[in-house]
Design goal:
By secondary structure, this protein is α/β, with parallel strands linked by helices. The chain is built from seven helices and eight strands, in the order βαβαβαβαβαβαββα. Helices cover about 40% and strands about 20% of the residues. The strands form three sheets. The protein has a four-stranded parallel beta sheet with strand order 3-2-4-5, with helices on both faces. It has a two-stranded parallel sheet with strand order 1-7. The longest helix is centred in the last third of the chain and has 16 residues.
């Protein structure tokens, strides 16, 4: 391996948990959270959970349910419905971008928009729209577009035998409806209408 680009997803989970812990400190009253982190076998899921749990350790945030499923919108919608039916006390759903995208419409149809807040553990186009419409309270971004740029620079530097930093990561930025940095969005999401085009030329 000649170079590595990427953030430690422990800190993605930690930043979401830290936000909730500050909002609901010890002694403020137990506040219930449901976790929908995505597939159990996903590489980033375990560090996200560890970071989140570490951040809320000394707060009044209590995880009352953790539900796993592939990042398929229908599967995640089923989990959202299960949370709504089984846990009247839940005040927050923290989950993958796919889960949070599904939850936006599910909370609206079940008239739970005013009682359950949504926090995503990473950014997507759908989560960004949720932030813009004040339907999503929080989402950290690991700036995926910027990671791509850094990777290309690493590769070209290696091929040209130019010295480069071998382990790099953009800073994680936490976005909310009141903090939507245009630069962070540009460094995170593809432009509107962007479609990748792949081609392979034969010999």
């Amino acid at each position: 391996m000649k170079g590595v680009v990427g953030v430690d997803w422990y800190w993605m989970g930690y930043k979401v948990g830290h936000y909730l812990a500050k909002k609901h400190p010890k002694g403020s009253g137990i506040t219930a959270v449901a976790l929908l982190p995505g597939p159990r076998s996903s590489g980033g899921t375990k560090p996200v959970i560890l970071g989140f749990l570490e951040a809320i350790k000394n707060s009044d945030i209590k995880v009352v349910e953790t539900l796993w499923a592939d990042n398929d919108k229908e599967l995640q919608r089923n989990l959202i419905q299960q949370v709504i039916e089984d846990h009247e006390e839940v005040a927050y759903i923290v989950g993958s971008a796919v889960a949070i995208e599904a939850a936006i419409s599910e909370l609206r149809s079940s008239e739970k928009e005013d009682t359950i807040e949504l926090l995503s553990i990473y950014l997507s186009h759908g989560v960004y729209r949720g932030l813009l419409r004040d339907k999503v309270e929080l989402a950290p971004t690991d700036k995926m577009v910027e990671q791509g740029r850094i990777s290309v620079l690493q590769a070209t530097s290696y091929l040209r035998q130019i010295p480069f930093q071998k382990d790099q990561a953009p800073s994680i930025e936490v976005l909310s409806p009141t903090h939507l940095s245009s630069l962070a969005i540009e460094e995170s999401l593809s432009p509107t209408g962007y479609r990748p085009i792949f081609s392979v030329e034969g010999d």
